[in-house]
Amino acid sequence: MQAAATNPALQALKDIHTPAVVESWPIAPGYWLILLVSVSTLLFTVIWLKRRIQRSAAKRAALMELERLDIHNTNICVEINTLIKRAALSYLPREDVAGLEGQAWYAWINSQVKQPLLELEKLLDRRYQREPLTPDEAQRLKQITASWLKEALPLTQQKSAQSPLSHKQEQELKC
């Protein structure tokens, strides 16, 4: 220690001072940006999922109700036709769907899917016949209806407006 006190070079040195502790707040602007983007993305995803679940609620309900229908019921054609119309009314205004019957109704149903379901039309048309559907026909009707519900729903105004029939043609078909 004596040597250090007598050495003039060592006497010119100052004491070592430790730097101040680096604080975590405030964080750097880049981290604020990352936090903002992350929270915005999370919020957008939650809102999008919630809307998607709400939009598909009527579709899920229609599919569950279709599963509950008994193929031995003599009114299955009427029930399925009502189910399709009720599902459509869940997404579209009443005036667009409620008044459709017969060929206009079948044309509208087929316009909502890529491939027309002529067998669905044929089986639904049997609801006015005296003879009920056989269990095999009823099962086939349920299968076709399920595929229509899965493909066509959820309906949008744009999708419905792309119907190949104009309102005037629909009125003519109703007569």
Topology summary:
Elements: H1 2-6, H2 8-11, H3 29-55, H4 57-68, H5 76-89, H6 94-97, H7 102-111, H8 118-124, H9 135-152, H10 157-161, H11 167-174
Keywords: Membrane, Transmembrane, Transmembrane helix
Transmembrane segments: 30-49
Pfam families: DUF4381
Would you kindly provide a written description of the structure presented here, covering whatever features stand out?
Keywords: Membrane, Transmembrane, Transmembrane helix. The N and C termini lie far apart (117 Å). The protein is an all-alpha fold and 175 residues long. α4 (57-68) packs antiparallel against α9 and α8 (118-124) crosses α9 (135-152). The model is unreliable at 166-170 (pLDDT under 50). It has a domain at 58-174. It is built from eleven helices and no strands. It has helices spanning 2-6, 8-11, 29-55, 57-68, 76-89, 94-97, 102-111, 118-124, 135-152, 157-161, 167-174.
